[in-house]
Design brief:
The complex is a heterotrimer of chains A (about 180), B (about 120) and C (about 500). Chain A has about 180 residues and is mostly helical. Chain A has 7 helices and no strands. Among the domains of chain A are: about 80 residues, Four Helix Bundle (Hemerythrin (Met), subunit A); about 40 residues. The C terminus of chain A is likely disordered. Chain B is mainly alpha-helical and about 120 residues long. Chain B has one domain: Methane Monooxygenase Hydroxylase, Chain G, domain 1. Chain B is about 70% helix and about 5% strand. The longest helix of chain C is centred in the middle third of the chain and has 53 residues. Chain C has one domain. Chain C is built from 19 helices and 2 strands. Chains in contact: A-B, A-C, B-C. Chains A and B meet through helix 3, helix 5 and helix 6 of A and helix 3 and helix 4 of B.
């Protein structure tokens, strides 16, 4: 019973801010709504016994991705939108979302799930053992995927210095 | 399973309660005599000028991006660290060290590349 | 927990040497680029060519073990070897085209070289994948590297737009794919192809899960191969990316996408033909027709080739449909099934190689035609009179266009011939007729380029571009197009042998 209560609380923590993210007119508010949603999702992972995923969710999504999202909002300088433009998109979006939900719900309830009776144990050691033996190739390979991403990021840092007549003209203006 | 997270919940609860209680106390007990000067926005004693919605320098984003990449790398260290002591005892420490060494070496190459390309400089 | 069975990879290290060389080569190029300041930038291209050539040497000389390696995560054999050769050759040509244009414009993109190697590595992993986990990793390496390749030209707005669009839509398609993997994993209890096959044959896997999962995965693959309705990114990305990258994307990514689609369809065929056969049939027809019809009105040769690449994805999907068809037919069909599957697979492999040759030749020429740095020669009208100014380049482009249109004796004709004959053998005569009508439509817009080059007079703004190494490389491709078109038999038989190993 307490288990159900915890689940309901975590689900609310995930869903209510998610609605906020979609409805908010202010992108920064939406970003902070995302914080709670991601946190709720981490709680749900922990609730299901996936402790490593929960920790990874906290570290990567809340620690990293969310910061990136907020910086993006601050960088792009989107003026706060006023008025009610955008509401016309809610109808098709809701229909699509409800349809997706319906399909997923039908599919998931079509299977006769049998709940696991054995007590769940910490997964982190098992994951460690797996990446050291069976999944050593994906583990090492992931470093190369990250490396490719890093080259892309390094490319963004290369500041373009516009060396043209416009710049030259500015230099001469400054010169005494 | 979830019982193992009760201490985490406790910490969260206590932290939330403390900050909430202190905010409430200062809100309820603190004297409040607002006037026009006190209500004005200022920073370090200087009146604010312009909008706060300025465009941030792109470097902030890049630092966050590099942080994210190395954060992901750190996540992969956790399961390895949990096992490492046991592996040392069973004589497989060399293998484990080599495996993680290769992983880290690849990412170190990336770090070197980003560094030499000037990705970490604040121009 | 302390007693881990530490795997013994001694035998497998040798088998994985081609992969290790490409990965290590990528790292080496990065380190060289970062540390050696005295190096001329184009020396990196020699390093890349050295790496790629050594892959070919290692692959041909060492008797690599066949079968699953790394606990069944990769499946090595003729199929993976075939695609390794294809990707490496495409990589070599792309390096030549890119370096040629860097040299001419004096505008180097040093990050191009390691990213190209990582993209090739991802494709090699994809073609050898034997587990959904490896499929995803291969897909992501390939995609991440290509996003940057397409969008990484500084100060070039169309390129940035292309990279951004590709990144956003690619991210969506990855999400769909992962969701599909999750459902398939839930249904089959494993991500390995062997486990999935076992679960499918035992009939223990819940069908709704499998149908939804495989459907979502098809969305992911469909995006990579530019299948309607997941094709929207193609014209903008092909147009915005520099021509040497577009050539790479149009050939290597399409080949990698179809390689994994082929494996996936063969894997899930016995159970899922019923669920997805009608959908794929409709999508194949739509893909062909839409691609060809929109290509008719393009005045920009890169956009025209983008729509044409959608159309060609449609022809290739016809081959996939033909492979799936026998699973639906009656007992008489089943008796012929194995033959059709094998011929269909061989036809697809042949088509992918032919398509790579003609598209690379075309993009090799488009790449050098631009008159100012950073702008490709993409306006068809400005090709006027090219045959008189640059006979070799014009002839090469003409051969590529004739081949794309499927006119004998080019390889494009034979490739289409093999595909359509398999479709007919599978009893899908209406589909074959639609395919032939589509190729007839396509003749119009391919020939228009030739007409402009050979029959229009040079105008003031006509392209003058030169870069002899690239033109020579593209000319060599044109020679291969004709050679394979005249003597396709040996190669086609080879493709059959390659394919036989993976057909279950």
């Amino acid at each position: 019973m307490t288990g159900d209560l915890i689940f309901i609380l975590l689900a609310l923590l995930t869903l209510v801010p998610a609605v906020w993210v979609v409805m908010s007119r202010n992108l920064v508010h939406a970003g902070f709504g995302l914080l709670f949603t991601l946190f709720g999702a981490a709680g749900l992972y922990a609730y299901m016994g996936a402790d490593f995923i929960a920790v990874a969710q906290l570290m990567v999504y809340i620690g990293g991705v969310l910061v990136l999202v907020l910086f993006t909002v601050m960088m792009t300088h989107v003026p706060r939108s006023h008025g009610n433009h955008g509401y016309d998109r809610y109808v098709p979006a809701s229909v699509f979302a409800l349809l997706t939900f319906g399909v997923l719900y039908k599919t998931i309830t079509s299977v006769n799930w049998s709940a696991s009776t054995s007590p769940a144990e910490p997964t982190i050691a098992r994951i460690g053992a797996q990446i050291m033996t069976d999944f050593i190739f994906p583990f090492e390979y992931v470093s190369l995927v990250l490396l490719a991403a890093m080259i892309g990021a390094a490319l963004l840092t290369r500041e373009e210095r516009p060396a043209g007549p416009a710049n030259a003209a500015k230099d001469t203006e400054v010169a005494p | 399973m979830f019982e193992r997270f009760i201490p985490v919940l406790l910490v969260l609860g206590v932290a939330g309660a403390f900050s909430g209680v202190f905010l409430a106390i200062s809100f309820l007990l603190g004297p409040r005599r607002p006037d026009a000067l006190k209500d004005s926005t200022y920073e370090c004693g200087i009146p604010a000028r312009g909008s706060i919605q300025i465009r941030f320098f792109v470097r902030f984003f890049l630092v966050a991006l590099f942080f994210l990449l190395f954060d992901l790398e750190a996540v992969f260290l956790y399961p390895w660290v949990v096992l490492y002591k046991g592996l040392l005892a069973s004589g497989a420490g060399g293998f484990a060290l080599t495996e993680m060494g290769v992983f880290l070496l690849v990412l170190l190459t990336g770090f070197l590349y980003v560094w030499k390309k000037g990705g970490l400089e604040w121009q | 927990m302390n007693d881990l069975a530490i795997p013994d990879f001694g035998r497998e290290i040798a088998a994985l040497l081609p992969f290790l060389i490409v990965a290590g080569g990528g790292l080496l190029v990065m380190v060289t680029d970062a540390l050696v300041k005295t190096l001329r930038k184009d020396h990196l291209s020699y390093l890349v060519l050295l790496v790629l050539l050594s892959v070919i040497v290692v692959q041909t000389t060492s008797g690599t073990p066949e079968g699953p390696v790394l606990n069944g995560l990769l499946l090595l054999g003729n199929f993976s070897r075939f695609f390794t050769y294809l990707f490496v050759v495409i990589g070599v040509l792309t390096t030549i085209f890119a370096t040629g244009i860097f040299d001419r414009d004096g505008n180097y993109r040093p990050e191009f070289y390691p990213l190209l190697l990582f993209a090739i590595l991802g494709m090699m992993v994809l073609a050898a994948a034997n587990d959904l986990l490896t499929v995803y990793l291969g897909l992501e390496t390939m995609s991440l590297a290509t996003y940057v390749l397409a969008g990484g030209v500084r100060g070039n707005a169309p390129s940035s737009e292309a990279g951004f669009k590709y990144l956003m839509l690619g991210g969506f398609s990855s999400a769909f794919f992962l969701m599909g993997v999750a459902f398939v994993y839930g249904a089959c209890g494993g991500t390995g192809f062997d486990q999935i096959a076992a679960a499918l044959h035992s009939g223990s896997a819940p069908m709704p899960f499998l149908t939804l999962g495989t459907g979502l995965m098809l969305v992911g693959f469909g995006f990579k191969v530019a299948m309607v309705p997941f094709h929207m990114w193609t014209p903008d990305v092909y147009d915005g990316a520099p021509a040497y990258v577009t050539g790479f994307m149009a050939t290597a990514i399409k080949a990698a996408g179809f390689a994994i689609l082929l494996r996936f369809v063969l894997l899930t065929e016995p159970m899922l033909a019923f669920a997805w056969y009608p959908v794929l049939t409709v999508l194949a027809v739509l893909t062909m027709s839409l691609g060809n019809i929109v290509a008719l009105v393009q005045g920009n040769i890169k956009r025209m080739l983008a729509w044409s690449s959608i159309a060609h994805a449609g022809y290739l999907l016809l081959g996939i449909v033909a492979i799936l068809a026998p699973a639906l037919g009656g007992p008489e069909m089943m008796a012929r099934a194995k033959g059709i599957v094998e011929e269909g697979g061989a036809a697809l492999l042949f088509y992918l190689v032919g398509y790579a040759l003609m598209n690379l030749a075309a993009f090799g020429i488009i790449n050098v035609m631009g008159t100012e740095p950073g702008v490709d020669g993409d306006q068809i009208s400005r090709y006027a009179g090219l045959s008189r100014r640059q006979p070799v380049a014009a002839a090469t482009l003409a051969v590529a266009m004739l081949s794309l249109a499927g006119i004998p004796p080019m390889v494009g004709f034979m490739a289409k011939f093999y595909i359509f004959s398999v479709v007919v053998k599978a009893g899908l005569i209406p589909l074959a007729i639609i395919g032939v009508i589509n190729s007839l439509i396509s003749v119009y817009y391919y020939l228009r380029v030739i007409v402009v080059m050979y029959m229009h007079d040079t105008a003031e703004d006509s392209y003058q571009g030169t870069e002899w190494v690239s033109v020579a490389a593209a000319g060599l491709l044109a020679f291969l197009i004709i050679y394979l078109g005249v003597m396709p038999e040996a190669f086609h038989r080879g493709a059959e042998i390659v394919f036989r190993q993976i057909s279950f």
